[in-house]
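fyi for ur records
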Amino acid sequence: MLRLKGKGVSEGIAIGPLCFYKRQTSDIPRYETKDAAAEWQRFKDAQQLAVEQLGEIAEKAREQAGDEAAVLFETHAMMTEDLDYEEHIQNSVENLKLNAEAAVKDASDFFADMFASMDDDYMKERAADVKDVSARIIGILTGAGQGGMDSDVPAVVAADDLAPSETIQMDKSKILGFATEGGSGNSHTAILARTMGIPAIVGLGDQLKQLTEGCMVVVDGRSGEIFADPDQQTLDAYKEKLEAHIKHRKLLAELKGKPSVTKDGRSIKICCNIGNPDDIQFVKENDGEGIGLFRSEFLYLGCSDYPSEDYQFEAYKKVLEEMAPKEVIIRTMDIGADKQIDYFKMPHEENPALGMRALRISLTRPEVFRTQLRALFRASAYGKLGIMFPMVASVWEVREAKAACEKVKEELRSEGIPFDENTSIGIMIETPAAAVMSDLLAKEVDFFSCGTNDLTQYTLAVDRQNNDLGRFFDPHHPAVLRLLKLVADNAHKEGIWVGICGELGADPELTQTFLSIGIDELSVSPRSVLPLREKVRSSSVKEL
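which gave:
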């Protein structure tokens, strides 16, 4: 038996044969072209086909892994048409007389190296995106076929690394797990694996080369361990764990339709976080009690220009109609920081996490804000809507945002357009300033929702995108929990409810703590609803 240790990035257990991902490779030709115009047209044709392929992959991703996964490939499609990227290729073709394949390869190397050299971890990940997009265009130009896994039976897929497009195009029914030499917990492939519920281990390095095609392996996505040709004792132990996991998922299904109430009668609402109207199917499948966070920025990320009022209205209306009579909380666009959009033309910032983002953009671009608010209030006539402002630090910001709402409501009244006059207004508590000022902020709004990822980042002065900081980013830190308790107390004094919509909400180790400090709602990924309900129903606040 051989034991390998990597980094577990998607929980679960996989037992089966190992299959190495095989890529169709071909040498990239490099030569001087005599007809630059024809060569440029070759690139444009390949670019167009790549955009079409990525559109198809995006739809497959939406079916298998939801909207956030689909947005990744829609962003890749936009990246193929990025002006800087195109200009680099055009210069190589027209001025250097390079053939299209070589020009794309040079552009790929240039931009990938540029992203990889950046300090921001999110931007570093863009290097992999550029390589993935460029490899697709080069493959079209050279006629190279698609790679894949060559296995007649379900298997654990092994590779040096996997591009997102490679991951999503594999037959999911054939994938037991992933094991890669490179990669990180923040890589798109790791995120896709978690979304699809597939165990995955990254960062195995040269250890993976010790394994052979077809060997039996056990993958533990929690511990990051792989056991190759396991002895009978190890195999039996992991088979028992796998059976227990499957049994547990079946038991969770029996919780559908049951209340989220503790043994001693404390009730809490368990809602879902989504990024697209199509995600509602997952909310319903997992018995979510409402939408606690609709990330409206994904509508912006999926467009090549500012989304129109009608476009947004239709998206919001669909969610509200399909979720009625349950409440839907829609967060106004949270653009900036790790979610940059080209057409916003945001200036470069040394520290974007502390820069122009979220509500700050809305308040400094009133026409963009007005368009979104009009779409939101128009949609409010079709269900129970709550509007939530992100990244609040001061009372004046909330008052100014509310004033913008009143102005839009007055416009709609004068135009005879129906909307819900009682639409609730809330804010996210993501900054220490908002937490400390929550007694005053509670007088201005109808609810609070705590974004624990950013609240932890700003409270502990730890960049949550920086994997190297590891244990320094501690959402369980007493300072974070004390702020949450302060926020809950101040909310209840003013008679408003308080929820948590960050990843911490799904942490079973803190469920009883949240119940004890008075959190009224937890909004989590759809897959976390039933496990969280089970935890709530087995808890007792009085035992704390």
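The two ends are 45 Å apart (CA to CA). thats all i got for now
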